[in-house]
Design goal:
The protein is an all-alpha fold and 194 residues long. The protein contains 9 helices and no strands. The protein has helices spanning 6-25, 32-39, 43-49, 53-77, 84-92, 101-114, 118-142, 148-168, 175-190.
Length: 194
């Protein structure tokens, strides 16, 4: 039986701890001391398994972007062929189905850190553009008669509504906001119907 790759396991343990710290303290507040304590590992083990703070941040951001991309791709892949746009909107605004408070807090922390880091700002803008592009693809398939401009506007609106709603999820359930956001996104779909 092959021995598990301890370095790989430790790396994930450290990245998981860093994620929890970023969710609590922001990207700049998540110090190596806090990560070490959260991971239950000595600081030298963090350096040995991931590298310095810059290496840790880079690995963390890469993992966040990859996981987010995979989750969005999975959602799109599982949309029904008959009504994909409505199914997508229903999935996005389903109570608690697509919300992970920690990931919402992490994405907010990365966006806020991007205000002081041009490279991170570009990455987070690209992250949002990729999400909107996926929504555009679903809308084009569902509404082939709609103009490209109308589809783009509806996709941007749906994404904006979704991310605004998601930003409030860590504060606790808000049925009125969820319901209103869902209805607003459905109204955007109605603008594309011919």
């Amino acid at each position: 039986m092959a021995r598990p790759n301890l370095k790989s396991e430790r790396r994930e343990q450290i990245l998981d701890a860093f994620e929890r710290c970023v969710a609590r303290y922001g990207l700049y507040g998540a110090t190596l001391d806090l990560v070490s304590e959260e991971a239950g590992l000595a600081r030298p083990l963090i350096r040995h398994n991931v590298g310095n703070r810059e290496d840790l941040i880079e690995a963390f951001i890469d993992r966040f972007l990859a996981r987010s991309d995979a989750a969005t791709a999975l959602m799109v892949e599982h949309l029904p062929g008959s009504v994909p746009a409505h199914a997508m909107v229903n999935w996005l605004f389903q109570p608690d189905a697509s919300s992970d408070n920690q990931l919402v807090l992490v994405s907010s922390a990365l966006i806020m850190a991007g205000a002081h880091d041009a490279k991170l700002a570009r990455m987070m803008r690209s992250w949002m553009a990729d999400f909107i592009d996926r929504v555009v693809a679903v809308l084009r398939k569902a509404f082939p008669e709609a103009t490209a401009g109308d589809v783009q506007a509806a996709a941007a609106g749906i994404a904006g509504i979704y991310f605004t709603y998601q930003s409030m999820v860590p504060l606790g359930p808000d049925t009125a906001l969820r319901t209103g956001s869902h209805e607003a996104a459905l109204k955007l779909l109605q603008t594309l119907e011919s």
